[in-house]
Design goal:
heterodimer, A: 725 residues, alpha+beta, Phosphoribosyl-aminoimidazole Synthetase, Chain A, domain 2, seven-stranded mixed beta sheet, 28 strands, 35% helix, B: 218 residues, alpha/beta, Rossmann fold, two-stranded parallel ribbon, 11 strands
Chain lengths: 725, 218
Amino acid sequence: MIKPEKYQALGLTDSNYQKIEQILGREPSSTELAMFSVEWSEHCGYSSSKKYLKLFPQKGKYETLVGEDSGGIMVDDLAIIFKMESHNHPSQVEPKQGAATGVGGIIRDIFTAGARPIASLDSLRFGPLSDPYNRYLLHGVVDGIAFYGNCLGVPTVGGEVYFDESYSGNCLVNAMSIGICRKNQVARARATGIGNSIMYVGSSTGRDGIGGASILASAEFQEGEEKRPTVQIGDPFTEKCLIEATLEALSTGYIVGIKDMGAAGLTCSTSEMASAGGVGIEVDLNLVPRREEGMEPWEIMMSESQERMLVCVKAGHEKEINKIFEKWDLHGVVIGQVNNSGIVTIKDNDQIVAEMPAKALTEPEIFDLPYERPAYLDEVNKLDIKTIPVPKDLNEVLLKLLASPTIANKSWIYEQYDHMVQTNTCVLPGSDAAVLRIKGYEWAIAAATDCNSRYCYLNPYRGAQIAVAEAARNLVCSGADPAAVTDCLNFGNPNKPDRYYYFKNCVEGIVDACKFFQTAVVSGNVSFYNENPKGAINPTPTIGMIGILDSLDNRMTSYFKNEGDAIILLGETREEIGGSEYLKVIHDLVKGDAPELILEKEKNLHSMMLEAIKSGLINSAHDCSEGGLAVALSECCIANNDKKLGAQITELGVNIRADALLFGESQSRIIISCREQNASKIEELAQKLSVPCQIIGEVSGNRLKILNLIDLPLDEIEKNWRLNV
Amino acid sequence: MVVFPGSNCDQDCFHAVSKVVGQPTEYIWHKDTKLDHFDCLIIPGGFSYGDYLRTGAIARFSPIMKSVIDYANSGGLVIGICNGFQILLEAGLLPGAMLRNKNLHFICKYVTLKVENTNTPFTSKYQKGQIVRIPIAHNEGNYYIDEDGLKELRKNDQIIFRYHGENPNGAVDDIAGIINKKGNVLGMMPHPERSSEIELGSVDGRPVFESIVGWLGS
């Protein structure tokens, strides 16, 4: 008789356990119990989220491919595969290894699809830097990303870093990776062909990471708990060899299916490959390469040792595959076969230690969880702007905002990442989006990540839509047409109805915005249980978006180029300060509603921008986001290290409060600069596409002057803007 | 193009030499040892053997390195870029050693360099004293050599590139690249292959490859 404590320690509930007995018609073995516990965990099984994830549009303006572990779009004869994934709890517990293995895991998802990884982006969130533990986390996470990504030779080209109290005790590390391959070379994560061999390739199996998916990722942190042993340890050198060996092996044509052993290791890869292929798999654990003595079968099945893959190989070609992995000093051994039983059979020598239907493992119960609008939201959404005094010294406000770690320049971080290796990065980090060329093609890729979680906290539906709109706007400012989306949905405990309310509404916001922009959601990841003893994190549905430039020549950067150029503001500035960085930093308030967003207006702005860029009319384009117009203008002046240019803003046209004018975060606005003679053409184009457009000043001198409100030398602006950790 | 497990700039250098300057190029696996038919060896950047133990310290014992040393000793052109430079130091083909960057972080960014000596097979297409923009990307680029060694380098005009303006990593005498006494082995920390095409923001690295082509053709 299995005691409740035993399955509960593995993260299984009483009803889970009863279901398992029902499926098997008997008591499960320890190995079976362990396998169910990881496969049915929230992290692998998506029980609490599947109902809403089904709503994401899988079709958009580009042909899509939605695979088992990742997805992508087709352009020309190429597939662009991309995905974002969280590694939050491991990073909170052990920042360097947590972040490093997060990068390693997402990159494996890309090359197991047959694609060579060409770039990574990272969206990071921490508590305030005034707390030394948060500084330790930031240092550790950046160090981990650099340690792993740099060694692999995959450039880290972009991302974002936010700071907010809600992430104290539960930081977020969302890693995104992009790869490319020929359309007809996309690999699938399934086992097919009765009699084909199941091979284990890569590094050996140890006791590291046991319970990573079920214990660490699928529960809240409790105070004083020791979870370090559940974090995996990464070896980027092995992964680099694994990338080269895997791509070489895939090019032989002898591999019919391949899956990363990431979360839940051998359990996940065997059961999901069998289930996806509609077959059975029998493996012998005795053949699994191990790095530790005396491992129990359940330990081998649950280990999350890194840099390992499971491969289904055409019978008779095992030697060729083995040879390739041996060349790279990696394991490549047959551990089992495909059969037609639909059963996953795990043997240890001659003894069967687990035997259960693959589909039962991979299709856990789907929950329809209750949700409820949090009672505090009514109060939080109330903001009487009249009670907020307009500060006297607006120069000081601007300098304070520029120094706010969320807004400040992140070169201290991205200069620790190799962002140039592979020699494709044609717009370097520090602009609105990274632009990557594809050697041999005229078109190019842009990529950005975005999410303002404060907006999502105030208004989850609109906040999530803004995340989509802003990611798209960043791409458009770089000259790219927004093409498709991956997401990483970070939320609190789904069993608490107020947390689930946020999840449901954010997903619906993304669904509607993506349908509107015709940007399919091709892949993604859900991370629940992001809580600390004080409460949940801000709802954070991070959006990763890919855009396509017809021609690399259309790439655009954010900063001013020439003295004398006209500065134009596209879009409308309203009296909105709710949820702004200004309200938080200067008045210490998180109140009001997220800024208004009208998708139609946003789309018009995108069309207009892309046409203006293609016509060669503009010299720079920068999105207005956190910190509003004044911060965006500052960045236009100083973002180019080699050439800083001042600006004189003489006309802003609207009659609203000075703080809202300068620091309000009205959506759908872009600052562009152009040759003076092109300004009227831009005005015509804007009128044609119903985009509000106004010439507001010119690029000149070495100061930023905005009406009679702001007057600062660029040196002082820059000094405040450099993030100093 | 010598490839060790963990090399990661091999394909970039291959692209620069084969596509940008249009020269026939081959990859050479680190277990191969026949090098006689090559005009020039490039040891590209990366993390050979994960840079475990010490950068370049394991690669130096790879089967190919004995052949590389013989090749260099018989006058063949060898250029080591970044990790390649570190390997050449470990192999004793160039004097000195690498320490960690003075800020103890990996640094990836454009730097400005001064070309100090153009009388070499690798730099003849530059102007003496030319200021160029070429990116760096390394953890251990803080070049160190003792007083006597430095005197020797200066005396023989072996310092080829110096950091100009900011010294990013703390290297002795702002050294970014050196050549051996004989003049056929160059090591440099900056990446010329990352600055050989205008799309990437700079073409200041291309003359390194063009100089080699010119020297071999003359």
